[in-house]
Amino acid sequence: MRWSAWPISLRGAFEELERMRQQMDRLFEDLSEGILREPTFSAGVFPLVNVSEDKDNYYVRAELPGVKPEDLDISATVDSLIITGERKISEEENVNFHRREREAGKFSRVISLPGQIDPDKVEAKCKNGILTVILPKAETAKTRQIAIKTE
Amino acid sequence: MTDKTKTLKPKDKTQVSTYVEQTKPGKVFIPDVDIYETEKEIVVLADMPGVIPEKLNISLKDNILILDGEVEPLKGKEEREIFKEFETGRYFRQFSLSQVIDQSKIEAELKDGVLKLILPKVEKATPRKIDVKVG
Questions:
Q1: Contact B114 A126 (CB under 8 A)
Q2: B56 interfacial to chain A (CB closer than 8 Å)
């Protein structure tokens, strides 16, 4: 009677395999989505930056809470941006600390830009503890829209 | 001459882990804080870069202090991301205060992404020196 049992269990095995394959697909989908949502790259140097672009500019943003503009030094070349500065935290005397998690110190970072910029027209602003540097793209680095002629 | 100032290292943001799910999607982070106490008050300093005063809620109820700040997306709509090292989201943190706070005199100031909160202790909570008499 063993032979008659074969087709049924075989079908069951294939169904089971198919189910496993689907589960694996779903797992990989979840995984890749999870990876993409995480920060993609980190140089491990303070401050951490996010870089984006539009048609005309590159934008570099960093979180620098409590850093005053006078303690920040920003310079740019045609293809890099340098951010140096110091975060100062006033020392309190005769107080009893419950928690101390905020850190003070110096920082310096060089960011290679993905394309050439015009260093004379770079703008930087600090607002609510976020530094935004706007770097206008050099004419050569701009993407040109090419009109397609119809014949 | 030696320069004692240390070099800052980047710190990964810590996400809030809670069983209570947020109604709004998005990440929630724990802000770094300094808390110190003087004879008369408790001072809380919290790093909340990107939070504007209108989007910051501070509440104190039953001696539980709650800090909750929202961050607007930093990137403009037309911008395309090239690389991303930090994420933005909400900042949320709560503390249970052991001292009794005079709620009418709480002062809060948000400047350059740092919140400074001054929580004055009520009169009876300020320590009184007790003389021990020698019998």
A1: no
A2: no
pLDDT tens profile A54-101 = 999 999 999 999 999 999 999 999 999 999 999 999 888 888 899 899
- CB of A21 within 8 Å of a chain B CB? The answer is no
* pLDDT grade for B19, boundaries at 50, 70 and 90: low
- Distance, in Å, from the CA atom of B70 to the CA atom of B88, rounded to the nearest integer, reads 9
**Per-residue confidence (pLDDT) for residue A40, from 0 to 100:** 47
Is pLDDT at A37 greater than 90 in this prediction? no
DSSP string, chain A: -HHHHHHHHHHHHHHHHHHHHHHHHHHHHHHHHHHHHS-----S-SSPEEEEE-SSEEEEEEE-TT--GGGEEEEE-SSEEEEEEEE--PPP-S-EEEEE----EEEEEEEE-SS-B-GGG-EEEEETTEEEEEEEBPGGGSPPP-PPPP-
Q: Which domains does chain B have, with CATH numbers?
A: 28-73+87-125 (2.60.40.790)
DSSP class of B62: T
- Domain ranges (residues) in chain A: 1-38, 49-90+102-141
Its CATH architecture, for the domain A49-90+102-141, is Sandwich (2.60)
Going by C-alpha positions, the residue among B106, B71, B107 that lies closest to residue B86 is: B71
ipTM confidence = 0.80
Q: Inform me whether the C-beta atom of residue A138 falls under 8 Å from chain B C-beta atoms.
A: no
